[in-house]
Write a structure and sequence with these properties.
The structure is a single chain. By secondary structure, the chain is α+β, with helices and mostly antiparallel strands. It has one helix and nine strands; from the N terminus they run E-E-E-E-E-E-E-E-E-H. The protein has one domain.
């Protein structure tokens, strides 16, 4: 079990282009973030709530890759990432439930 603490890492970008969409961070608290998902015309397609994961630093093909916070890949949805629809109020409620659950687990 690796219990090392990563101190120096690149934080997750507040605006991310991925899979033909633009994701904009609306909030983050603790290890959770909520992003809105829009297409290139600006049409809202939904919100995504997820646990921010830190990828450890590593050497790949002889190049040093620093530790970074990662936007979830498709395989994480349903486990620690969720698409929660276009209703912003409902999306924020879901986000706050995840944050609250996380805080309660720490106590």
């Amino acid at each position: 079990m690796n219990t090392s603490i990563i101190v120096d890492f690149k934080p997750l970008d507040e605006v991310i282009s991925k899979n033909g969409f633009v994701y904009k961070q609306l909030a983050r608290k603790g290890k959770y973030a909520i992003y809105e998902q829009r297409d290139k015309t600006g049409t809202l397609h939904g919100h995504e709530v997820f646990e921010i994961i830190i990828s450890h630093e590593r050497i790949m093909a002889g190049n040093f890759i620093p530790a970074i916070e990662s936007f979830p890949g498709n395989e994480r949805f349903g486990f620690n990432a969720w698409s929660v629809g276009i209703d912003t109020k409902r999306a924020f409620k879901f986000f706050m439930e995840k944050v609250k659950t996380d805080i309660n687990l720490e106590e």
